[in-house]
UniProtKB/TrEMBL annotation:
Name under which the protein is recorded: Response regulator
Xref: Pfam families: Response_reg (PF00072)
Organism, scientific name: Shinella lacus
Coiled-coil segments on the chain, per record: none
Organism domain of life: Bacteria
4-aspartylphosphate: modified positions: 193
Lineage of the organism: Bacteria, Pseudomonadati, Pseudomonadota, Alphaproteobacteria, Hyphomicrobiales
Keyword Transcription: yes
């Protein structure tokens, strides 16, 4: 199975048909489009729930784990968002498919720690949804290392990444990061703070780049400093990207995806050259 998403994501791997996916949506048009597209791309059969009652029945009728839910904000019988609250309370990872978007709506959705939200207001909405589904179902293949001396910062980034289904390791300083990288060669992305007491982000990146190239490990630097030149210094040290704190969830996830997509493309090209 081969898939190339709108944002450049590439997936060519095993069938995703073993996952149980619920779609809580009352529009026949959208349920038909979603079902057809996910079946066509990933051989996924979805369970359609057109009301809150059907959603509850779908959960109760089977003990099989629900891998992911795709839900409208409002459903018949749950006109005030009860369906989404129900899924969140059950700890079911959920992508919200909505026709409206305002700042308050966005903030409320992200406060529930949903996986993602997709707007219905464009012709490629279903393809964007398909990409979001594919990312969630395959992100566990990516191992990400967070390096930060702040326990709070490590916890926040870990929560963000685990919400998207990544495997995550953490290091509280540069020396621990080097040890973890040596012990876990499958780490594909490192997100490192700049200001750390033992080895700062620049020096850590320089040491890593002495033996590990960008075709093996992507590095994103982060900092809350107001010095705009930090990004230039970090990139010159061998980093691939840099984000200033505070950053919003959408920006953070986009940067992570872009770097992992680039790594996937490089590895695909390398396999073709060696074939």
């Amino acid at each position: 199975m081969a898939f190339i998403g709108i944002s450049g994501m590439q997936y060519s791997g095993a069938s995703l048909s073993h996952h149980r996916i619920l779609v809580a949506e009352d529009s026949n048009v959208f349920t038909s489009m979603i079902s057809k597209r996910l079946k066509e791309l990933f051989d996924l059969n979805v369970e359609i729930c057109r009301s809150f009652e059907e959603l509850e029945l779908a959960y109760d009728k089977s003990s099989d784990k629900i891998t992911l839910a795709i839900s409208n904000i409002n459903l018949p019988g749950a006109e005030n968002g009860e369906a989404l609250n129900y899924l969140v309370d059950l700890s079911i990872p959920t992508i919200v498919f909505t026709g409206t978007f305002q700042q308050t709506t966005r903030d409320q959705l992200l406060s529930k720690e949903i996986v993602d939200y997709i707007l219905k207001d464009n012709i490629f909405a279903v393809d964007m949804l398909a990409e979001s589904v594919c990312r969630f179902l395959t992100n566990h293949q990516h191992h990400v290392l967070i390096v930060d001396d702040s326990a709070t910062a490590r916890a926040l980034l870990t929560t963000r990444l685990k919400r998207y289904n990544f495997r995550v390791s953490v290091a509280e300083n540069g020396r621990s990061a080097l040890e973890l990288l040596k012990a876990n060669p499958d780490i594909a992305l490192m997100i490192t703070d700049y200001n750390m007491p033992d080895i700062d982000g620049f020096e850590l990146t320089r040491r890593i780049r002495g033996t590990v190239g960008s075709h093996q490990l992507r590095i994103i630097g982060v900092s809350s400093s107001t010095d705009r030149l930090l990004s230039a210094r970090f990139l010159k040290a061998g980093g691939n990207d840099f984000i200033m704190r505070p950053f919003i969830d959408e920006e953070f996830y986009c940067r992570v995806n872009q770097n992992l997509d680039t790594l996937t493309q490089i590895r695909t090209a390398q396999r073709r050259l060696s074939a």
